[in-house]
Amino acid sequence: MRVIAGTARGVPLRSPSADGTRPISDRGKEALFSILYPRLPGCTFLDLFGGVGGAGIEALSRGADHATFVELTAAVVEDLRFNLDKTRLADRATVIHGDAFAFLDRPPTPFDIIFVAPPQWQGLWVKAMTTLDERPGWVADGGLIVAQHDPKEDEDLPLTRFERVRSKAYGGVQFGFYSPAAQD
What pLDDT is attached to residue 183? Predict the structure, then answer.
């Protein structure tokens, strides 16, 4: 696991010290960030289930202005902070040690890109998307939500404020891209 491109290109990242965290693979990350690249320079990025920071660190390395990471597990937060220091990107990051859903209960601060990659097979990606749909203030004008999950977990969600505009599967990972829906 490493940073694929940008200012921290090639820097290896520490793997999670706790079970239950599945970092994004280099292959999946490369595919995802090839799609996101035009949106990254100057953006604000929310890594909602931050893990060791693979997605948010990649966004920072490729030009995001700031990334916020939300991670529940204390040992993994330590790994995340280590990775931010190692990549020299900590000055453009905020790390929140806490529950992603408690974070979303706060008054919203809009982000240009929100990355949702919770533990698999617990319905958490659906819960996160539903919560964001109910609280659209988290997504900046023209913003995007990316949900990562196992392809077998995929389903069409009954969202009212967001619509899936793209879906891409790479082996055992699927990315759904959600933009604000056109309002009548």
Answer: 64
